[in-house]
Design goal:
With about 200 residues, the chain is mainly alpha-helical. The protein has one domain. Helices cover about 75% and strands about 0% of the residues. The protein contains 9 helices and no strands. Helix 2 (about 40-55) runs parallel beside helix 8 and helix 6 (about 110-130) runs parallel beside helix 9 (about 175-195). The chain is globular. It holds the Pfam family DUF6198. Keywords: Membrane, Transmembrane, Transmembrane helix. InterPro entries: YczE/YyaS-like. This is Membrane protein.
Length: about 200
């Protein structure tokens, strides 16, 4: 193990700290991208679009969609854990809190700073809550369930994200350069952070 690697936590308090710290950071990352106005990640384009049509906050939609997505786990034979249920509830709450507290980016420099911080936060958050080993997020479970049907991880993720992105765009969600940055950067950044936080 390299000196830069942070050992995987085994005690429950440490695992819970990673889980809920990761979920808080994930919601904050969503809020940063939304407030940038430059485009959201694919799922959040969808969440925002649904929220605009239904008159709901993006955080509320994240919670509702997460709960509905968990129903799709049944035919895919996926088992939720504490992390799955916590993801459904807390990411939406933290996203709404971040959107409420963050000032809208009124300048391009601040907007791009929001995008950079948002994408980095989401990548680190993903590694934190997965490394806790307490269950995948509801949307991640759909991907792993599709992998069990014989699809590759890359194809499964592509099919899911292009579907929700297109639907969200049609509903009025924000798609832009920030969406492209998210698509290109979140994977490599997530891989980078696994060097410090080994996945369970």
């Amino acid at each position: 193990m390299s000196e830069a690697t942070i050992p995987a936590v085994s005690g429950l308090p440490g695992r819970l700290a990673r889980l809920y710290g990761g979920l808080a950071l994930y919601g904050t990352g969503i809020g940063l991208q939304v407030e940038s106005g430059l485009g959201n990640g694919p799922w959040d384009v969808f969440h925002q679009g649904v929220g605009l049509r239904a008159g709901l906050s993006i955080g509320t939609v994240i919670i509702v969609v997460g709960a509905l997505v968990m129903l799709a786990w049944i035919p895919l034979r996926q088992r939720p854990g504490l992390g799955t249920v916590s993801n459904v509830i807390f990411v939406g709450l933290f996203a709404d809190a971040a959107i409420h507290l963050l000032p809208p980016a009124g300048h391009p420099v601040l907007a791009w700073l929001y995008v950079a911080l948002g994408v980095t936060s989401i990548a680190l958050a993903t590694v934190l809550y997965i490394s806790a080993g307490l269950g995948a997020g509801p949307r991640d479970g759909i991907m792993t369930g599709l992998v069990r049907t014989g699809l590759s991880v890359r194809l499964s993720r592509f099919l899911i994200e292009i579907t929700v992105l297109a639907a969200g765009w049609l509903l009025g969600g924000t798609v832009g350069l920030g969406t492209l940055v998210f698509a290109l950067a979140v994977g490599p950044l997530t891989q980078l952070f696994t060097r410090w936080f080994p996945l369970r």
